[in-house]
Design goal:
This protein is mainly α. The protein has helices spanning 5-13, 17-37, 45-59, 69-89, 108-126, 130-140, 146-153, 157-177. Helix 2 crosses helix 4, helix 4 (69-89) runs parallel beside helix 7 (146-153) and helix 6 packs across helix 8 (157-177). The chain is globular and about 55 Å long. One of its GO terms (biological process) is DNA-templated transcription initiation.
Length: 185
Amino acid sequence: MKHTDEELIEQAQAGNPHAFGLLVRRHQAWVLRFVRRLPGTPADAPDIAQETFLKAWQAIARWRPEARFRTWLLQIARNTTRDEWRRQLRQPSEPFEVEQHVDPSPSPVRRLELDRRLRQLERLLERLPAEQREVLLLREQEGLSYAELSNLLGIPPGTVKSRLARARAGVLEHYRLEGGEHLHD
């Protein structure tokens, strides 16, 4: 029987670590993806994702049903990432490699094309201001609503919409300046 997040949270709040483990398994992939996509995320994104879940476990008693678990978890991940940024600013930094995401199923030629397009999209996103990039990724990749983005980022819904519109326009403008081809397949 598959339990809802709310049922698992209730069990975790009662001290059931197995229930929380199920929540971790259910949400760990997208938390890691979210952390990796935040502007300036360090190479140790898996450690930050793990720290996010540790903090969530420590704070699970404070979670309230009126907040979506996913939004609550994103806020913890965002804050944990910011804490790591601050910590790294106080220490000398080392260069890190951007992980390449290649779908293993297409042909080698198709993989090269997909990889090229992914790098192009990443370049376009990197040109956006951090707050625009963040809202665009949260909306498009994580599927957050305007209200969820507003709560998560602590900004009015109108600001969410304007940042999103500016981000989309910025990506298209940079794309055109690069002599862009079709991104869709």
